[in-house]
Amino acid sequence: MAENIEELAFSSVIGDRFGRYSKYIIQDRALPDIRDGLKPVQRRILYAMYRDRNNHTNPYRKSAKTVGNVIGNYHPHGDSSVYDAMVRMSQDWKNRAPLIDMHGNNGSMDGDPAAAMRYTEARLTAIASELLLDIDYDTVEHGLNFDDTLEEPLVLPAKYPNLLVNGATGISAGYATEIPPHNLGEVIDALIYILTHSHYTLDDLLQIIKGPDFPTGAIIQGADELKNVYKTGRGKVVMRSKTEIESLRGNKSQIVVTELPFDLNKTKLIQRIDDIRLQHKIEGIVEVRDESDRTGVRLVIELKRDADSEGILNYLLKNTDLQMNYNFNMVAIHNLRPIQASLDLFLESYLEHRREVVTRKTRYLKDSDENRLHIVDGLIRVMSILDEVIETIRASENKQNAKENLVSEFEFSMEQAESIVNLQLYRLTNTDIVALQNERFELNERIFMYENILKNPKTLDNVIVNELKDMKKKYATPRLTKVEDEIKEINIDATLLIPKENVIVSVTKEGYYKRTSTRSFTSSDSLDLGSRDLDHAIFVEQMTTYDAIIMLTNKGNYIHLPVNELPDIRWKEIGKHLSQDYQLEDDEKLVGVIPSLVGIENERSSLIQESYVVLATKLGMIKRVPIQEFTTYRSYKTKTSMAIKLDGQDELISVMLADIKESYRVIHLTAKSYGLQYDLTEVSDYGLKAKGVKGINLKPDDFVVSTMLVNCKYPNSQIIALTQRGNIKRFKVDIVANTKRASRGILMLKELKSNPHQFISAIATNGTTLPLIIQGDTGYTLEMSTVDIPITERLANGSQLDKLDQLGKVLYLYASKLLLINETQKDN
Predict the structure, then answer these.
(1) What does the alpha-carbon distance between residue 636 and residue 581 come to, in Å, rounded to a whole number?
(2) pLDDT at res. 823
(3) How far apart are CA 583 and CA 563, in angstroms?
(4) What is the dihedral angle through the alpha carbons of 431, 434, 440, 445, rounded to the nearest 10 degrees?
(5) Which of 188, 329, 589, 612 satisfies CB 3.0 to 4.6 Å to 658 for a cystine?
(6) Secondary structure (H, E, C), 471-502
């Protein structure tokens, strides 16, 4: 006993057994044969029905009987697997040419299951019989069934290319297949083209086969992609529903869907559209109705009065399965191996199969006719020696002795002798002699034709061409699916998705942001913005939920946020901090905020949409970027994106907007009080990832405090600057050195030997009165107006601030956004 024990590694045993199992389900369960396009269970169903004469010329029979025959004779699996395969082959919304004609409930496009097999009846369709035609002429190989009691065909003769016509879908171990249905007439035309042309290309075939032809119709977009798909056997195209917009009374309309993408569950689609309506993801849908009947699909989406029907349709195409992708994965069994094949290989493999089928059929018929001719020759010879033959038979002891005597005395073959002894007396008339002579003539003609087919490949191909033409004449139908060259881009108007609302958007220096309804703003003290100590608003503006803001940090990064995604918080409450959603560096802080206005149509909106964003750094670099470059990137909800490339310890300090149509001067002020101005045209346009050009030539220990833009149409423009010693200075722009970019500039403060004044903050005005705020490190703020500050000469050090002892160390100077928005609301 011990000698019969073999020690094997567990992994090798598992690998071997799984390999066998995988081979079985790949070859004999899940994938179709490239020749007849059938999986084993489908082939066995069709063959069992054929053997039971359950075809289109005979009455229907209970599906349960067919299932029992298949399970008992050919397919030792569960009845549900056999019946499910029967049902699928009968569904005209999944098959371009159904193979089973089923009476009763065979399911629906809504995903309803078929009735139990005891309730339904079925038979083969006419075109299914063409798959089995000539199977009794030894046209295909047969093998033993599971218990070796019967033989079953290993492939069907398949008088038409069923794999391409009906397609296939299946999942196996390591393999899957997804082959779409095609138009029978187009596929046959392509086969005939191959048979009648010695040279052809895939492009030639694609002039004939336009693409898949789904039983549900609809539209395919991306014809250009089909060439690559059919070349590789893999790829995808876009399937779009066939829709139209119908006008109704009262300025109403409705979207009507008459054709849906292939293999789509209609009920789930309706439920999805209704969920969109109930959840108000889009405004304008009143009701979704299914008005489909036996004449076809009709899905109605009724819209509200004056609704944007085109916009709603685009949204539904984008967000539901009214438009979806079809992924090709054209895998089939070829020479007992799974392959991913091109279109021309599918067609060539089918033709190779048909050549073998027709050759075997011809050889079978030739052998049969030759045998019959041999018999007819014997019968005709009998007529010339009839009396001797009769005498010999009468003298014989029995039938076997009579046959032996005929063979020995007259040199008949045993087969001829058998037919002679079985000859009936009435066949001895002259009429039957003539019939035999005519039969011999016909047999000789047919045998000659068969020999010509077997010897001449072109004649063989002509036979196949004639068969294909006959199939096209009988079963070809017009194309259902329309193929379009390009994939139409779907643009969705934001107004469909977001209710338009006027809001007040606020962002503070410390990084708190929010949007507030105008109701909350007007019912509150506009100056009482919720904020922390030493924090203040750097952006407060009325916007709509269709707009966006662009926030820039000192590290040269930006965040693009749609206004409708800002947190909706009351005016008096502190907003949401950037650190809750974004991973900022320890010393990263906001520098500026730019509005991107869309929903507000006014002078300010048009200015912003036709603007440059001018960015300036602490070490004197500057660039301008078209505002359109700042867009919503993919990870905008959690990550920042680069706005300017910074070197070393450089930081972004100034963010400004410049109208394309206007002329501007750039003004730099440095800590060492150097001032420089030049024309903005000296600064070129750059992308977001560029660092720009040098704006001012700095001394080694100097840095830029503020970079400002001054519009040339305001001749009275002024600058207000604050020093570290608490002096504030107002001076005209004209006294700043007007020279070329990258110059040093001139001093703007009087030099002192001890504790000289240095600029720490500055803003520019167009000469109008501005409310100013000076912030001290004690938390105290000093409010004043530009008119409170005297205009001084270039080298004057300005005047000292009041209440300097309460301010402590001065930090910065800014124009009050709250006072400005308050004045704006009053004007409105």
Answers:
(1) 10
(2) 55
(3) 21
(4) -120
(5) 612
(6) HHHHHCCCCCCEEECCCCCCCCCHHHHCCCCE
Q: If we measure between CA atoms, which residue out of 365, 330, 436 comes closest to residue 34?
A: 330
3-state secondary structure of 417: helix
Residue 827 has what pLDDT? 47
> How many whole angstroms separate alpha carbon 300 and alpha carbon 516?
39
- Whole-angstrom Cα distance, residue 301 to residue 292? 13
What confidence score (pLDDT) does residue 486 get?
85
Query: What local confidence, expressed as pLDDT, does residue 741 receive?
Result: 93
Paired strand residues for 573: none
Residue where the block lists tokens 């346009």? 685
Closest to 125 measured CA to CA, from 169, 73, 160, 151? 160
519-574 pLDDT tens trace: 888 887 767 787 788 888 889 888 888 888 999 999 999 999 989 889 988 888 88
Check residue 534 and report its DSSP letter: T
Report whether 768 contacts 737 (CB < 8 A). Answer: no
Question: How many residues are present in the chain?
Answer: 828
The SS3 of residue 722 is strand
Instruction: Kindly give, in sequence order, each residue whose CB lies less than 8 Å from that of residue 807, ignoring residues fewer than 6 positions away.
Output: 726, 774, 775, 776, 777, 778, 780, 782, 801
pLDDT value at residue 434: 86
Tokens of 755: 């504790």
What are the angstrom distances between the C-alpha of 255 and each of 174, 290, 323?
42, 12, 14
pLDDT at 384: 85
- In tens, the pLDDT along 62-80 reads 999 999 999 999 998 899 9
CA 24, distance to chain mean position in Å, is 33
Per annotation, catalytic residue among 21, 24, 119, 780: 119
Give the pairing of strands 482-484 and 219-221: parallel
Residue 728: the pLDDT is 94
Q: Give the residue from 153, 820, 784 showing the smallest Cα distance to 540.
A: 820
Contact (Cβ atoms closer than 8 angstroms) between residue 484 and residue 220: yes
Tokens 């087919």 correspond to 453
Give the tokens for residue 387: 């009396």
Q: Is 714 exposed, middle or buried (0-12, 13-18, 19+ CB in 10 A)?
A: middle
Strand order, beta sheet including 537-544? 537-544, 502-508, 512-517, 576-577
Strands (E), 59-138: 61-62, 100-103, 121-124
Nearest alpha-carbon partner for 338 in 454, 174, 202: 174
Q: Residue 805: is it exposed, middle or buried by C-beta count within 10 angstroms (0-12/13-18/19+)?
A: exposed
pLDDT of residue 495: 65
Instruction: Collect the ranges in the chain with pLDDT lower than 70.
Output: 1-2, 430-431, 494-495, 526, 597-609, 819-828
Burial class (CB in 10 A: 0-12, 13-18, 19+), 218: buried
Q: Which amino acid is at 385?
A: I
Q: What angle do CA 359, 363, 365 make, to 5 degrees?
A: 115
Q: For residues 535 and 679, what is the distance between their CA atoms, to the nearest angstrom?
A: 34
Rounded-to-integer distance, Cα 232 and Cα 789, Å? 77
C-alpha distances in Å from residue 691, one per residue of 250, 529, 617, 636, 685: 58, 36, 10, 22, 11
3-state secondary structure of 56: coil
| Of 701, 636, 695, 700, the residue nearest 667 (C-alpha) | 695
Look at residue 790 and give its three-state secondary structure: coil
